[in-house]
Amino acid sequence: MFEAGIFRKLATKAIHSGELRVPQIGNYITPIFTSAIYRYPPDKSQIEVRKDKYFKYGREDNPTVRACELKLASIEGGEDALLTSSGMSAIMTCLMSFMRRGLRIVAPLELYGATVKLISMLSSMMDAKVNFVYPTSEELIDEIGRGCDLVFLETMSNPLLRVLDIPEVIKAAHEVEAIVIVDNTFTTPCNFMPINHGADLVVHSCTKYLAGHNDVVAGAIIGEYRMTDEIWEWRRLLGTICDPFSAYLTARGLKTLHVRMKHINESARAIAEFLYEHPKVGKVYYPALPDHPTHDVAIKLLKGFGGVVSFELKVRGQERVFSFMTKLKVIRPSPSLGGCESLIIHPATSSHKDLSPEERMRLGITDELVRLYVGLEDVEEIKEDLDNALRKTS
Ligand code: PLP
Questions:
Q1: What separation in Å is there between the alpha carbon of 133 and the centre of ligand 1?
Q2: What is the CATH number of domain 10-254?
Q3: In this predicted structure, what is the pLDDT of residue 28?
Q4: Residue intervals in the chain for CATH 3.90.1150.10
Q5: Pseudo-torsion of CA 355, 360, 363, 364, nearest 10°?
Q6: CATH classification code of 257-391
Q7: pTM higher than 0.70
Q8: Measured in angstroms, how far is the CA atom of residue 90 from the centroid of ligand 1?
Q9: Can you list the residues of the chain whose pLDDT is less than 50?
């Protein structure tokens, strides 16, 4: 019924794995199941949705959701996956299964802002201890070595795209028997697979590259059944399962992920090189550039560097940066990434506005910094758009 894992390569898995194909019907594409109720206790002919569990109620499981979960587990190299209503609900559902009084969490300071806030709020509610560390692999490894129970990482930081030495950080965490959760949203399994490097769990905002068309909000958790069983229980209790239509769109997006990521990796690299040479641009942050602070780790670990390029304008003050952003005609101002449209934000007044000016300075997030996401438009037209707006800004 659900296509099983006989496929070897990511592109083939992304297209065929998990698809719910009914022999009596002959369909190739998984339909959208809207049923919230199922026969229970099950009939002998019904299939298990997961070990010892049958479809029973829409808040627990759904066939369209399950098809997408199996596809995602197969391309991330995990045993199981759970699809959730957003990236944040994936993180929340996952954390709930570990939270307890006295839990010691270590994470880099440069995590996605909402993740920092969620971890901080949950920790203070549950009397856990969280330590946000200046985001270098060395500082994280030192802190982990002092003892902890849970490490939360992102494969690439936002907006400066620092790449952690994930295998080394995971090794340090496992030496103190800590669980490691890796948010792989910015790299996707096309560019990096954390589970192959020992991560216990991977989380995603499927809203970004995985669904890939800016028309879905969804999230995912991938890992071994020994972990996902309890997280499934939390998803059931919290009701954070993804809805069937979003699961359908996410599965549809996954089928072209490898093609989109190849194009995005190439376009973003070309744009980073173009910006690097531009007289109106100061620092450019893209891990493929030799002077990026984590270039060496990035080329060691990643197959591609994704679509985000951050850069500083050679002007002074936020007003001039806003004026540059309004002159762009192809690139749109918006805080997301991973879809077809190129997007731009000003991190100091959006994603990182909750940090103090001192913390922003310490991380390198200046008032003149913008974060560009390079989408699927023609790369020459994106360059022209940037060049026109940059030349008109002084
Ligand atoms: N993780 C990362 C790295 C993100 O960038 C985001 C959103 O921007 C999230 C998690 C949260 O995802 P969602 O917006 O789907 O809840």
A1: 20
A2: 3.40.640.10
A3: 96
A4: 257-391
A5: 150
A6: 3.90.1150.10
A7: yes
A8: 10
A9: none
